[in-house]
Write a structure and sequence with these properties.
- Keywords: Coiled coil.
- Residues 9-36, 75-109 form a coiled coil.
- The chain is mostly helical.
- 93% of the residues lie in helices and 0% in strands.
Length: 109
């Protein structure tokens, strides 16, 4: 029975290491996405501020172009904010799962 238990524990330990490595890679990827989202959001805000302070001409074509640009920038900002919230949600979900797993392991002991 001893070698069987040792083999089972070794397999469990190996699986746990693989899961931790996968979780670590996923967290790194999420952090990278979060940083990229922050950079893009900052860039779009700068473009928006520049656009708002730019001299405006009264002709209709320019007004239509401004309205189109404003719509595009508003949409991009909303998408980036949504992506940022989704990334934060995923990070919190993973952290919650990790805490639950660690609590379950403590109760099993």
């Amino acid at each position: 029975m001893g070698p069987l238990v040792a083999r089972i524990l070794e397999e469990g330990d190996s699986e746990l290491r693989k899961e931790r490595a996968a979780r670590h890679r996923a967290e790194d990827e999420l952090n990278g996405m979060k940083e990229l989202t922050d950079i893009l959001l900052h860039l779009i805000e700068k473009i928006w501020a520049f656009r708002c302070t730019n001299n405006q001409t009264p002709d209709d074509a320019s007004q239509q172009q401004r309205a189109t640009l404003e719509s595009i920038l508003d949409s991009a900002l909303a998408q980036l904010e949504l992506q940022s919230v989704q990334i934060e949600y995923e990070q919190l979900r993973r952290e919650n799962d990790q805490l639950r797993t660690s609590n379950n392991l403590q109760f099993e002991k």
